[in-house]
Amino acid sequence: MSLLTGRPERLIHALKRLKSGSLSVKSKGTDIVKISVATNEIIIDLQNIEIVKDLLEPFRKLGVLSPGVEEKEENKSVMEKLKMIKGFAENLREERMTISIRRMSEPVLVIGERANPRLSKLVLGSNIQADIIKILSLMRVLR
Fold first, then answer.
1. Could you give the number of structural domains in the chain?
2. Are 92 and 12 in contact (CB under 8 A)?
3. Residue spans of alpha helices (H) in the chain
4. Which residues span the domain enclosing 76?
5. CA 103: distance to chain centroid?
6. pLDDT per residue as tens digits for the range 45-102
7. Distance, CA of 89 to CA of 102 (rounded, Å)
């Protein structure tokens, strides 16, 4: 069970406290990740995916990002993973919040109020705007 599927209202309550600001993570003058917060919106923009992958590696080794024995993440399809966050996306919409994950400023996944679901609305029946091709590409690079 993750924070998103277990008790999403706790995470949303914490996120609603964020009002505005931005954070840029750079290495040797190269942007890695940009996070910007405005009232009810959080944008996470992955600028340099290879460095992000390197930064996440110690967490994988510690087991922080690896799935439990009972549920291997790599065995789940992208659609199954998106279905897991369906309730979280719906809670975000109810709270009029949006979280957007981008890769070099292009939306990959948008959940919550400002999501504009098309195909994913038909398949998932929820407030998730997902570019499946971009998600697959991103997941492939992060492995």
1. 1
2. yes
3. 3-6, 8-16, 49-62, 78-84, 86-94, 119-124, 132-142
4. 3-142
5. 11
6. 999 888 888 887 887 777 666 554 444 555 577 777 777 788 888 889 899 999 999 9
7. 16
